[in-house]
Each structure stands twice: as structure tokens, then as C-alpha cells.
């Protein structure tokens, strides 16, 4: 078995390229090693003009890759996620997805095509053979490999062909930026968006089932009712986004059963309002145990005590459910006295 090696290491028992000795050996033994065919020089090896042309082609491909990567980043910024365009023959497609796929494909293809064209036209292409060596190389073999590496690097023209080298390094430097930009799809930074919901001072608590304002007499001891802010309608474009933060659960406890003083002060005659969004991963809480005043998240079994500030009793949730301060307005309806004083839902790195 043979492998690529140094030209100087060709075994003596192998026939030389295109020699009569090789043809003679083939006639005597059809299974004999015929050796390598005579080396044919490429046009770029003998014509400096052709070599310069290949160099310009390789450089152009690397530059094209850089431009395509810049186009990828520009498309990511320019096109909105919901923009649909008609492109023949694909039909109606997402402008963002199509442009990202096209520019990234061109960027990667141009790098590969440039590298292949460089290797095929400008790097050394003479085939040489060497006996397969043992896995544990001796000092002489390691030195031979080192010399082969030095020779190969010299023959590749990497140090001499600065235009190719610099354009390749530029393309390889820019392409990873496409992956960095894609990190934006992990979601926008929360900023202060999680600090505020649709609740505000004076907004009535609307029963999510009847769409009517909740009154104290509508909430019985031991019952669990779900509410949403006044003015939030399902027909709104951002309804799902708003209700995901503003969903509320209302329970009525006997005042003597409420252990937490702030919870008692923030309620009305034993009626207390807590966020319905679990503080673990944001699942909606809906399982209420009347005798213990515990609510259970059905996703991962986080359990909260609604009689003690909704503190966590069990499960992976990291902090209590936020409480909404409520009262009664002049119409006798339950109203909010402001927004939640802390972000609802799962913890995040800017939780205040």
C-alpha cells in the first residue's frame, strides 16, 4: 500500500514515471505495480500569464465570499421576519429566509471554490509515492514530514501570493460573522419589557370567561377565578403577547388564613390577585387546592402557597408568584392599584 510522501523517498524498486522498465514489468506480470504516469505540466506551470489569471480568479472568489457575508448580515437587518415575496420558480417565500440562504450559500461556496481552484491550478500537483510507515514515527521520518510540510507550504505560494493569501484570510474571517449574527434569533434582549404588563392603576379586573368586570361578591371563598386587564381584547394583534404577562388568578381566602401581612394589605376582604405565570419556565398555573391554599403548576409541579405570599413550597420555581395590588372602585368593581412591582414569569439576568 502506498501514500503521498516526499519525492526524494520514492523506493528504488518502483518503476520510474513512464519508463520502459515499467512497461516491461507489466508485460511480464499484469499485476505488477505500473508506477505513476509521466507528470504533465499544467498551463499555469509554464505560462506566467495563465498563473496570474488563476490568481485573480481565486482572489475574486474569496472577495465574492466576503461580499456575500456582508450581504447576509445586511439582509438579516433589512428584511422583517414576516415579509413574503414571490420568487420564480419557488413561489411565495420568506424574503428573510431566502436571502439568508442565498447569501450564506454563496459565501461558503466561494470559499470552497477558491480553495479548490487554487489547489488545482497553482499548488504543486506532482504525485509521489512512499511506503506506508508504521504509526510510531521515528526521528528521521518526523524530520522528513517536517521538510515535506515546509516544501509544500513553499510550493503552495501561500507566502509569495499575497493577494490570494490576504483575500482568503479576509473571507475566512468574515464568514463566522454570519453565525454570530444568527444569535439574534435566540430572541431580543428583554430590556425593560418584562418589567411592565398591561396592568395599570384604575384598570378593572375582567373575568376571562364572562368578559365582565369582577365584583367582590363574584369571588367566593375557596374559588379560583382568572382575570385580565380592562381594555385587552382577543382581537388585538398583540393579545397573546400581552396576556402572557398579564394573566391573573384571583382567590378569596378567609382573612385569618392569610399569613403574609403584605399579601393581606394588597388584597380586598380576603381577595388576593397573583400572576398566573409560573416563575419556572412560564407555564400557566391552573390547579388549586382549596383546603391547603396551594396552587400547582402542571408542567413541572412547582407548588406555591397562596396564603403565604405565594412562596415556593416545592419544585424548580425560583421565586414566589408576583402579587397585584387591588381594591374596589366607585362602581363596586375590583380594580388594580398599579402594575406588578417585579417582572412576571421566569427569572432573567436583569430581574429587578
UniProtKB/TrEMBL annotation:
Domain of life of the organism encoding this protein: Bacteria
Main location class: membrane
Cofactor dependency: [2Fe-2S] cluster
Places the protein is found: Cell membrane
Gene3D superfamilies for this protein: Rieske [2Fe-2S] iron-sulphur domain (2.102.10.10)
Protein name: Cytochrome bc1 complex Rieske iron-sulfur subunit
Keywords for the protein's UniProt record, in alphabetical order: 2Fe-2S, Cell membrane, Disulfide bond, Electron transport, Iron, Iron-sulfur, Membrane, Metal-binding, Oxidoreductase, Respiratory chain, Transmembrane, Transmembrane helix, Transport
Family label: Belongs to the Rieske iron-sulfur protein family.
Listed SUPFAM superfamilies: ISP domain
GO MF annotations, alphabetized: 2 iron, 2 sulfur cluster binding; metal ion binding; monooxygenase activity; oxidoreductase activity, acting on paired donors, with incorporation or reduction of molecular oxygen
Subunit structure: The cytochrome bc1 complex is composed of a cytochrome b (QcrB), the Rieske iron-sulfur protein (QcrA) and a diheme cytochrome c (QcrC) subunit.
Membrane-spanning ranges: 57-79, 99-119, 163-183
Membrane topology: Multi-pass membrane protein
Location of region: Disordered: 1-42
A Gene Ontology term for the protein's cellular component: plasma membrane
Biological classification of the source: Bacteria, Bacillati, Actinomycetota, Actinomycetes, Kitasatosporales
Composition bias, Basic and acidic residues: 14-30
A Pfam family hit: Rieske
Residues covered by the Rieske domain: 266-335
Function: Iron-sulfur subunit of the cytochrome bc1 complex, an essential component of the respiratory electron transport chain required for ATP synthesis. The bc1 complex catalyzes the oxidation of menaquinol and the reduction of cytochrome c in the respiratory chain. The bc1 complex operates through a Q-cycle mechanism that couples electron transfer to generation of the proton gradient that drives ATP synthesis.
Amino acid at each position: 500500500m502506498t501514500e503521498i510522501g516526499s519525492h526524494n523517498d520514492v523506493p528504488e524498486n518502483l518503476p520510474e514515471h513512464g519508463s520502459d522498465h515499467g512497461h516491461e514489468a507489466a508485460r511480464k506480470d499484469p499485476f505488477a505495480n505500473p508506477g505513476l504516469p509521466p507528470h504533465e505540466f499544467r498551463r499555469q506551470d509554464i505560462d506566467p500569464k495563465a498563473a496570474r489569471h488563476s490568481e485573480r480568479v481565486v482572489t475574486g472568489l474569496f472577495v465574492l465570499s466576503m461580499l456575500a457575508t456582508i450581504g447576509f448580515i445586511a439582509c438579516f437587518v433589512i428584511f422583517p421576519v414576516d415579509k413574503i415575496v414571490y420568487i420564480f420558480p419557488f413561489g411565495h417565500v420568506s424574503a428573510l429566509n431566502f436571502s439568508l440562504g442565498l447569501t450564506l450559500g454563496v459565501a461558503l461556496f466561494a470559499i470552497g471554490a477558491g480553495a479548490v481552484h487554487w489547489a488545482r491550478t497553482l499548488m504543486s500537483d506532482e504525485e509521489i509515492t512512499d511506503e506506508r510507515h508504521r504509526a510510531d514515527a521515528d526521528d528521521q521520518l518526523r524530520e522528513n514530514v517536517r521538510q515535506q510540510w515546509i516544501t509544500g507550504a513553499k510550493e503552495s505560494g501561500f507566502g509569495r501570493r499575497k493577494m490570494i493569501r490576504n483575500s482568503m484570510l479576509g473571507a475566512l474571517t468574515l464568514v463566522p460573522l454570519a453565525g454570530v449574527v444568527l444569535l439574534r434569533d435566540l430572541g431580543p434582549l428583554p430590556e425593560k419589557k418584562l418589567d411592565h404588563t398591561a396592568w395599570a392603576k384604575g384598570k378593572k379586573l375582567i373575568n376571562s370567561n364572562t368578559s365582565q368586570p369582577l365584583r367582590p361578591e363574584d369571588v367566593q371563598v375557596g374559588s379560583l377565578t382568572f382575570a385580565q386587564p380592562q381594555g385587552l381584547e382577543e382581537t388585538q394583534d398583540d393579545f397573546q403577547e400581552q396576556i402572557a404577562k398579564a394573566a391573573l388568578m384571583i382567590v378569596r381566602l378567609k382573612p385569618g388564613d392569610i399569613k403574609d401581612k403584605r399579601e393581606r394589605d394588597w388584597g380586598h376582604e380576603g381577595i388576593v390577585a397573583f400572576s398566573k405565570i409560573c416563575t419556572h419556565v412560564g407555564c400557566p398555573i391552573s390547579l388549586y387546592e382549596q383546603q391547603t391554599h396551594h396552587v400547582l403548576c402542571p408542567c413541572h409541579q412547582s407548588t406555591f402557597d397562596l396564603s403565604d405570599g405565594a412562596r415556593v413550597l416545592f419544585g424548580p420555581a425560583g421565586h414566589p408568584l408576583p402579587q397585584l395590588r387591588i381594591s374596589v372602585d366607585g362602581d363596586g368593581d375590583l380594580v388594580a392599584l398599579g402594575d406588578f412591582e417585579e417582572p412576571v414569569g421566569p427569572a432573567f439576568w436583569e430581574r429587578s
